[in-house]
Design brief:
The chain is built from three helices and seven strands; from the N terminus they run βββββααβαβ. With about 130 residues, it is an alpha/beta fold. It has one domain (about 5-125): Trna Endonuclease, Chain: A, domain 1. The strands form two sheets. The protein has a five-stranded mixed beta sheet, with helices on one face. α3 (about 90-105) links the parallel β6 (about 85-90) and β7. α1 (about 45-70) crosses α3.
Amino acid sequence: MDRGLFLNPQYLIGKLGVWEANPDFLALEFPEGRAWMVEVTKAPRVALLNKIRDFEKDYVPRIKEQLETHKVPRSENPASEWTIGLWVFAPKATLANLESRMQTAGVKTSKVTPLEDTMAPSAWDERFR
């Protein structure tokens, strides 16, 4: 078990009523100084593709701002301290396409994990879109 990884489900990014998003998780890797916006899907749809497209422009600055607001940074210069990445859990058959889309969108830090490596397909239910 990695005790340096903290997960917050349905983390609110942005400000209520102004600009808001709720990724499946926000994961903080404290030893690495890395925050991950985590999305879990059994079938990538337009909403996920839009998040990939808009990640660097819309999500990264807001996540950094919220880390600073919540006093997560450990130094005087929090903007440079944390690396923000997009981590997607999706079926193996979709990973190459998602990796390509992240590269095309200019996502600087990304990771994809086969959903099959985390749970059996028989366990997928309506919670994962």
